[in-house]
Design goal:
Blueprint (H helix, E strand, L loop, with lengths): L2 E7 L3 H14 L5 E7 L6 H4 L7 E5 L6 H10 L5 E5 L3 E2 L4 H11 L3 E9 L10 E2 L4 H9 L1 H4 L20 E3 L1 E2 L3 E5 H6 L12 H11 L3 E12 L9 H17 L6 H21 L8 H4 L1 E3 L12 E3 L7 H8 L8 E3 L6 E4 L2
Parallel strand pairs: 1-2, 1-4, 2-3, 6-11, 13-14
Antiparallel strand pairs: 4-10, 5-11, 6-10, 7-9, 8-11, 12-15, 14-15
Helix pairs in contact: 5-10, 9-10
Length: 348
Amino acid sequence: MLLSVVIVNYNVCFFLQACLYSLRAALQHLDHEIIVVDNASTDNSRAYLPSRFPEVRFIWNETNLGFSKANNLGAATAAGEYLLILNPDTILPENCISTALDFIQSHPDAGAVGMRMYDGRFRFLPESKRGFPSLLTAFYKLSGLIHVFPRNKQVAHYYLGHRSPDIVQQVEVLAGACMLLPRQLYLEVGGFDERYFMYGEDIDLSYSITQAGYKNYYLPHPGIIHFKGESTVRSAANARHFYEAMLSFRHKYGKKATWFSRFLVEFAIGVRTLREKLKISPGTQKIPSQQQFHTCSQLTTYDPAIPTIFVPGLNYSLEEVFGTLKNRPPKTAIRFKWPQSDVAVGSD
């Protein structure tokens, strides 16, 4: 078997449905399997998905094992020569996987390949390509300086902001939301480190791949949509998780943090916490998995406030849709609906 796709699901049933519909077209002519590892979802994933996707192998965990452990579980049962680690809130155009496979098969030095990612409004997600972190780069990110100087080589090193996102390039870190690599290499380096709670797993895996003597490559075309992305939930708690992941990464590889660098990052977290308290009042923050899908009965009447709905498979392919989206205003919300589904998903 050529390819095993491993997806970890937790309470994003309708996003996963859209992802699986896109995979049907993208994998149509490839020898493959799809493995969905469900982390004890409490939505209707178990009742809704298996009958609609009989070709998918579902693993139903009784508890939430976390992202890393669930991916490792899926990889351990996989049979493909290559693994595609994929988030459930992604949509892939028809030529995406074949393009990535062609690249990795023609580049023996490639350990892993990642894709250009767009958010649900088709804006480039900078976490598509990253550099290895330091506590100083964590400070730049958490303090917001990375957005003030987005193309500065030092300040924006975490997102490699000084490099164009439009060219194929070797990078240090690829996003775990969409990463293609040989299954044997994944197993040899130990897969995702299960000690990371949130953030850092893909950084650690990317580092392990380079330590094994391989390179990580970023592909700018055709790209994928990742609805949540790193920018969706910006809480102080997530800032803390990010900081702790950076500390864990540095400690694991023998790089000790100075008291001054720790102070800088703690200060940045304090600023981030204050910003969030001023920006979000209690009870107003939306939960993406509950707010970003709509039944089509809610979308039947014309309303200028409702974003464009794309229905792949009727009049055009996802590849054609992506070409259209590149010419749309960057802040315009969009939704996707498949003919077989009564649900549209989007970022709004």
